[in-house]
Design a protein that fits this description.
The protein has 575 residues and is an alpha/beta fold. It folds into 3 domains: 308 residues, ABC transporter transmembrane region fold (Up-down Bundle), CATH 1.20.1560.10; 162 residues, 3-Layer(aba) Sandwich (Rossmann fold); 63 residues, no CATH class. The protein is built from 17 helices and 12 strands. The strands form 3 sheets. The chain has a 6-stranded mixed β-sheet with strand order 6-9-10-3-11-12, sandwiched between helices. Helix 5 packs parallel to helix 8 and helix 12 crosses helix 14. Bound molecules: adenosine-5'-triphosphate (ATP) and magnesium ion. The site of adenosine-5'-triphosphate (ATP) has 15 residues, from helix 9.
């Protein structure tokens, strides 16, 4: 019912200790309040005047006010703690997401991670608050009241004691059913958020191919499933509230009947009987409160478990290497480096050496594994087997800060941040002057775009702002590379995939100078780039089938030659 990890949150123990003190005080005040009220009522019953009960009334009022103050104080302490614990959890989660990198988002789905960091954390805040307050109160207040009841009338105390386990058994039974339903609901919610985000991202394609209606239907169906699962949780929650109310009311009624008979037969005296009758609802109140809020905490419990699962994944350990800035004498060897996606596609063991400031082309048909190979070299994917040897150091993967800090990576679809054009271009070099940014923009041929933008390079671009075409996004990525002279390694993944051949050739002229004095790894299926490459890796169906200089590959008359022949007449002959 309670996630034990809750008690391992930083600061949980100290707040719990303080809360225990406050709730014990609260229990004492509840008892004081009941006893003084009983004393006043009994006094009045025996015909004493209001005036003579003044002291009792005052003490009752004092207990009442103090109880409210203690309640408020404990509540505000707890909500402050819950807020800060939830915030620190969000911080840790985000840190972990960045540490684990792209494979986590692939694993979990971006939509799910977004809802987890936003709604999930607020649910956890509520969960912490309810669990720490209600559970503690439930463990303290009824015990104190029961002890006093034994002193006042042991038969009544026994009745109260006997009913309690019954209520708890019911609560556990219904709670478990609710938990199962809530787990289903959480799963449906995860699918809904991923599905929704996917559809938002692909909305232009969906509209274009006329599938948007069918997709909106699929979102409608997921949200319907979510609605049904939510109703299932609520039904059980209602049922459990009803069952508990029934049991507690019944037991208070039994007490009242027993006490009434006792009084009529003069077996009992008024004071203890009335005190117990006043205290009985207070005795059952904590468990009723807990049960009625229990379903509200289930989402928090599930989010908490989901976040803890992510947090418990080990951080990638970075070997301590002393890499120096990449130079013409350095080597990167791939020794039997292989990869397998969870859903089947594989890269067979690759063996090659990338040397110094070479320009290395990676070619192959679509789906042959170019991006996968590039992503392993760039450190985004961890090979399943094999190793890299970088500057003489063997490493299992290239996810090395010292390697990443030397790379400029231009992916197949570069990401344009929602920021000004200037900040997007100066991504690797935030401190450069506006003049240099404008120069870079000019070099990659984005002057026309700047002329169109209302605030020039300070115009906000990206999602939700001025959206750019695929080619413009790639030019921005190139401008980033142009500005950064320090990074000596350029990794390109189809940087001209979105461009028509004329634009590509125009851009090629601007890109070639960027490649000078740098190690370049360039994946593409446009073969005309190979004329500028010193060494070529040829991929086919996840295998490195050939490697060598272009001349050697052409002379070999193998798969590369086949590719060239297939494309002859196309872009291959363009210089
Ligand atoms: N995240 C992934 N999960 C599972 N399989 C994947 C994933 N990404 C790629 N694949 C599969 O791995 C194989 C190689 O894909 P990859 O993207 O490396 O090819 P590519 O040569 O870059 O293709 P393209 O020229 O179209 O970019 C393909 O069969 C692809 O379907
Ligand atoms: Mg690719």
């Amino acid at each position: 019912m309670i996630d034990k990890a809750l008690f391992k949150l930083p600061g949980a123990r100290s707040i719990l200790k303080r809360l225990v003190g406050l709730y014990v005080l609260q229990a004492v005040l509840i008892i004081g309040q009941a006893l003084f009220l009983t004393a006043v009522l009994v006094g009045l019953w025996h015909g004493h005047s209001w005036q003579s009960q003044g002291r009792g009334i005052l003490l009752f009022a004092l207990c009442f006010v103090l109880r409210q103050i203690v309640n408020w104080w404990a509540g505000s302490k707890l909500s402050r703690y819950a807020r800060s614990a939830a915030q620190s959890l969000r911080g840790r989660l985000l840190k972990k997401v960045f540490a684990l990198g792209p494979h986590l988002t692939q694993d979990q789905g971006t939509g799910h991670l977004v809802t987890l960091t936003l709604d999930g954390i607020s649910n956890i805040e509520q969960y912490i608050e309810l669990m720490f307050s209600k559970v503690l109160v439930m463990m303290i207040v009824p015990v104190v009241i029961l002890l006093l009841s034994f002193y006042l009338n042991w038969v009544c105390a026994l009745i109260m004691l006997a009913v309690y386990p019954l209520i708890i058994i019911f609560m556990i039974l219904l709670g478990n059913a609710a938990l199962d339903k809530a787990k289903t609901q959480f799963g449906v919610f995860t699918k809904l958020s991923n599905n929704f985000l996917d559809s938002l991202r692909g909305i232009d394609v969906l509209k274009y191919v006329g599938l948007s209606k069918r997709y909106s239907k699929s979102i409608f169906n997921s949200s319907e499933r979510f609605r049904h699962s939510t109703m299932d949780v609520l039904k059980i929650a209602m049922l459990s509230t009803f069952a508990l109310d029934f049991f507690t009311t019944l037991s208070i009624a039994i007490l009242a009947v027993y006490l009434g008979y006792g009084l009529i037969q003069a077996r009992l005296t008024l004071f203890p009987s009335l005190a117990i009758l006043i205290l009985a609802p207070e005795y059952f109140k904590p468990i009723r409160n807990f049960a009625s809020d229990f379903h509200a905490t289930l989402n928090g419990k599930n989010s908490f478990a989901a976040i803890n699962k992510i947090l418990s994944q080990p951080d990638p350990v970075e070997p301590k290497l002393a890499l120096h800035p990449w130079s013409s004498n350095d080597d990167l060897q791939l020794q039997n480096v292989s990869f397998a996606y969870e859903h089947g596609a594989q890269i067979a063991p690759v063996n090659t050496t990338i040397h110094g400031l070479a320009k290395v082309g990676i070619v192959g048909m679509s789906g042959s594994g170019k991006t996968t190979l590039i992503n392993m070299i760039a450190g985004f994917l961890k090979p399943r087997a094999g190793q890299f040897v970088i500057q003489g150091h063997p490493v299992a993967e290239m996810n090395l800060a010292q390697w990443r800090s030397q790379i400029i990576y231009i992916p197949q679809s570069p990401y344009v941040f929602t920021a000004s054009l200037r900040d997007n271009v100066a991504f690797y070099t935030p401190g450069v002057s506006d003049e240099r940014v404008k120069e870079a923009i000019h070099v990659v041929g984005l002057d026309d775009l700047v002329a169109e933008l209302p605030d020039g390079i300070n115009t906000m671009i990206g999602s939700g702002k001025r959206v750019l075409s695929g080619g413009q996004a790639q030019r921005i990525a190139l401008a980033r590379a142009f500005l950064d002279r320090k990074r000596r390694i350029l990794i390109f993944d189809e940087p001209t995939a979105h461009l028509d051949i004329e634009t590509e050739l125009e851009l090629k002229k601007r890109m070639l100078p960027l490649m000078k004095d740098r190690l370049v790894i360039f994946a593409t299926h446009r073969l005309h780039w190979m004329h500028q490459m010193d060494y070529i890796l040829v991929m086919n169906h996840g295998r490195l089938v050939e490697q060598g200089t272009e001349a050697a590959l052409m002379a070999d008359n193998g798969y590369y030659r086949q590719l060239v022949d297939q494309m002859r007449g196309g872009s291959t002959n363009v210089q």
